Amino acid sequence: MREYDVVVIGAGMSGLAAAIRVGLAGRSVLLLERHEAPGGLNSFYRKDGRVHDTGLHALTNYAEPGERRAPLNKIFRQLRIPRETIDCNPQRGSRIHFPDRSLRFGNDPTLLEEEIASAFPAEIDAFRRLEEEARTFPATDLRSTGLWARPFLEERIADPLLREMLLCPILYYGSATEDDLELDQFMILFRALYLEGFARPREGVRTILRPLLKKLKEVGGERRMRCGVRRLVPAGDRIAELELDDGTSVRAGVILSSAGRVETDRLCGLHPPEAGNLVGRLSFVETIHIHEGQPADWGWEDTVVFFSRNRPFRYRKPEDAAVDPDSGVICIPNNYEYPEGRALPEGIVRVTAIADYDRWIHLPEPEYRQAKEEWLERLTAVGREVLPPPRGEPGPVVATDMFTPRTIEHFTGHLGGAVYGASEKKKDGRTAFRNLFLCGTDQGFLGIVGALLSGISIANRYALAIEGAAAVEGAEYL
User: Fold this and answer.
1) At which of 196, 214, 247 does a domain end?
2) Each residue of 436-449: pLDDT tens digit?
3) To which H or E segment does residue 400 belong?
């Protein structure tokens, strides 16, 4: 039976980062992935000659190369990957759209300040104080505050509409709980979205995955695709071995799992009473429309639009339909600042909305296909309602696709198709076993940058015995 210093379960962003950190330290590491493509939630697929990203709307936490303390640049240093390989193109500008108010924001925080000063003049001082709290909040602390965002905001922002508008993008880009999220995660996402902002590689998530896979190979990490974990075999307070899908077994001194909190417990044969309540209730559908031409030419100039068509804003599993079309996200990947002459060749419009996993998962195949066609049409109409009236007729649609909670569960392994995992996170990554730790979605750092940081910090702390603040500072300790 093969033995490794560390085995990492899952080749998503956090798993790849964790495995690289272990390899950089000269330890033996095996990375296991059940599917044929790496990336987990942030992967890609090919259809009819086109490549589609499955999760990437935006790389959050954008920072200029000289900002050494920014999370994005720390990650490049910790993984020893040149920044230029990721091809970070900043957004043109995004928007929060509600029935009677709209707020623009971008990678310069002063734009949102100016918008709030104009639309909510009585709240601008309170908002600036909130910005300062977010800047100084210890976002990488592995201890949880136990506090929640809504009560925190109610103490600081008097206007309920502004509170809802600020929460809308944050919930859609990271909350595993309905209508609220833990304060730690709120602060992480507030900084990521409003103080740092968005970027995107021109070729999408593949541009991020390629250097990660190359670095893993350079540091001697072993990667097995189409080889998941069937069972984690406990022996007392440790995991003695991992039984793999192919019938073989391996051993490891330390195991880092990005499979999810409840999913990892189940691999260990554990079914704690609270497990059912921990499975996330929030899943999504997303439509993809490919047009001839550039959306900005038709007046669709926003990079990302977060919208609610009703008040109060609702972020919860729909009660009486397969999809809630009344709020969501519209992403137009064309609207990043790509180099001259390097615009995307086709127009892409993606519409995301919250879905009821239970309604989608039990549909027979013919009804499933019909439901996809119906919601593709309905969400297309929603997108046209939320976006500005086009100047002229948008370019003809040359391709469409759509994924559902069924798709998400298949490719991520998350129970309930829960994109953001369990409803309660384990920021310290600990489990019931001394040599098994969580990284990724259910550890609690969010987005692509957060997932990479999660893998780094958990590997540093538990696989490499780097403690405290050093666990998330990284490379200088190797």
Assistant:
1) 196
2) 999 999 998 888 99
3) strand 397-403
